[in-house]
Design brief:
Elements (H helix, E strand, L loop, with lengths): L1 E3 L5 H14 L11 H12 L4 E5 L6 E9 L9 E8 L8 H15 L4 E7 L3 H9 L3 E12 L2 E11 L4
Parallel strand pairs: 4-5
Antiparallel strand pairs: 1-2, 2-3, 3-4, 5-7, 6-7
Length: about 160
């Protein structure tokens, strides 16, 4: 079941996200986030944008989340969003990320947003392929944009037009 985020979700979302913080270069965050930090992020994002979660019907476990956020704070960027999706690492490959993104993009389109940006570590081939499947196109590449786990990391910028153009 996909629904809007609720206050009782912050711990589960922090747990999901912190796995990627501590074990991967899929996020450039270096330190795990507290429940309070996750709560503040959600509150900041949901003042303007959508944040949704996927809860497994049989176990009632929150297994993924997706959201749109500000791409750049300058006014002319107001119709472009940055999107993110995270799925509990033990639940990969079950279509959860796809279901979340389908719902998110439908919502963003009805809200008249024109463009979605995904900023992806270039070594994350799975995420690059996943975003391509949703119509994202590579529009930029930053060399050695981040440093984590003793290595320099590139990022790939991908863009999806939400109005079909």
């Amino acid at each position: 079941m996909i629904r809007n985020v609720e206050s009782g979700d912050f711990q589960c979302m922090a747990d999901i996200y912190n796995h990627f913080v501590e074990n991967t270069t899929f996020t450039f965050e270096i330190e795990p986030v507290s429940v309070e930090v996750m709560e503040q992020r959600v509150l900041n994002v949901t003042e303007k944008y959508t944040w949704i979660v996927y809860v497994d019907d049989s176990s009632n476990l929150l297994v993924g989340f997706a959201y749109a956020s500000t791409f750049k704070p300058r006014g002319a960027y107001q119709w472009t969003v940055e999107t993110s999706v995270y799925v509990r690492h033990t639940w990969d490959g079950r279509g959860i990320g796809a279901a979340l993104y389908e719902h998110l993009f439908q919502t963003l389109s009805t809200q008249n947003y024109k463009s979605a940006i995904a900023i992806i570590p270039s070594r994350n081939k799975g995420s690059l392929a996943f975003h391509s499947k949703f119509g994202f196109k590579e529009v930029g590449h930053l060399h050695q944009a981040g440093f984590k786990f003793g290595q320099w990391l590139d990022t790939t910028y991908m863009q999806k037009m939400l109005d079909g153009k």
